[in-house]
Amino acid sequence: MPLPADTRPAPVPLRVAFWYWLKLGFISFGGPAGQIALMHTELVERRRWISEQRFLHALNYCMLLPGPEATQLAIYIGWLMHKTRGGIVAGLLFFLPSLLILIVLSWIYMAYGTLPVVAGILYGIKPAVVAIVLAAAWRIGSRTLKNRTLLAIAVAAFLAIALAEVPFPLIVLAAAAIGMLGARLLPSHFQVGGQHPGSRASYGMALIDDDTPTPAHARFTWPRLARVAVGGLALGAGVWLLLAWRYGAQGALAQMGWFFTKAALMTFGGAYAVLPYVYQGGVEHYQWLSAPQMIDGLALGETTPGPLIMVVAFVGFVGAWSHAIFGPGSVLLAGVAGACVATFFTFLPSFMFILAGGPLVEATRDNVRMTAPLTAISAAVVGVIVSLALFFGQHVFVQDGRPDIAAIAISAAACVALFRFQAGTIKLLAACAVAGLVLSYRHG
């Protein structure tokens, strides 16, 4: 029975929050927008653990950070309610279910991926992924490209990465520099947008309400910032040094640790933004996996709950399995180790940003000189995502030098379903998987 609107909910024990975060980890389909909507419905509207304004406040500052914003929002709310341990519990449970599911799917893919039924399913899913990436570009672009200046940045980023093959980190740095300059010359063009699409209406008194004082552990102090930052850096460095000592600094696991740390710092605009960087490193530089495998990994990642950036677990799994880093008789163990290393180093920065820098970012979020570089980066990200769709299309729509009419038709139908009918991702992928099975059976 819901509480009356004028009654404040009782304090929530950590064990109760634990079961909620675990449930969310298993049902958080739909990408960041869907995950944020799930949290809003449950935490703001139904349970009233946090007020609408405090929720939006947290969301806006998570959107300023590199990394998966929905994961960071969960960490933030958990931290605000139950201190550091609450943030760690919320963050871990948000992505651990998807990690476990993706490890199982990766094992099936590597061990049985050549079976006709598996190949048929992937044949149908991969064209859908192209449509999903285009839809992501449209969704982020409609929110980000508010004027011609930001549109020009997006177009320049697309040309830079698609035609000039400029590395993704250089595009990010160039966009940040443009944003810094734009904050001085055209500040109105670089205002931060991101708001949750839900209502601003009050849903009744919340446990953490608009007028609830900021708890002591969430107030900014330099000593606390230093403690958490040093602790996080020491943890990351310690794990990396252990991998380097045990398997060599040039070994695959140590290389993955360093690479995915850099990737985590490039995820402005969500997982789709960092995928070109992961592709450049994982496919072209380190050759952990092939380009078709990268597309297959994204297809599998779309079918699991949790943040889409979890596709890095697939990259780590396939890279460690393919290179048999523990020997030919332990490829499954190697794959699991690779997936865990990629996940650890991808998500560690997000925990550090929230637990250490949250109060500092909150204090400066309305300063356009602080936010303009991030706004410019978000605009550049749109162009990068479009280039990613173009890259995937080249590999999916052309087979043996000839256009694959069936794949093009599946992708076109998926675009209509996404753009015209707002179809859900899981239903779309299921339908395309069935179409792929039927087509592969008829041609088999």
Secondary-structure blueprint:
Elements: H1 14-27, H2 31-46, H3 52-62, H4 69-112, H5 116-144, H6 148-162, H7 168-185, H8 222-247, H9 252-264, H10 271-285, H11 291-302, H12 311-322, H13 331-364, H14 368-396, E1 398-399, E2 402-403, H15 405-419, H16 425-443
Antiparallel strand pairs: 1-2
Helix pairs in contact: 1-4, 2-4, 3-4, 3-13, 4-12, 4-13, 5-11, 5-14, 5-15, 5-16, 6-14, 7-14, 8-9, 8-13, 9-10, 9-12, 9-13, 10-14, 11-12, 12-13, 15-16
Structure write-up:
InterPro entries: Chr_Tranpt_l_chain (IPR014047), Chromate_transpt (IPR003370). The chain has 444 residues and is mainly α. It has one domain (99-193, 216-443). The protein has 16 helices and two strands. The chain has helices at residues 14-27, 31-46, 52-62, 69-112, 116-144, 148-162, 168-185, 222-247, 252-264, 271-285, 291-302, 311-322, 331-364, 368-396, 405-419, 425-443; strands spanning 398-399, 402-403. A two-stranded antiparallel ribbon has the order 1-2. Strand 1 (398-399) and strand 2 form a beta hairpin. The termini are far apart.
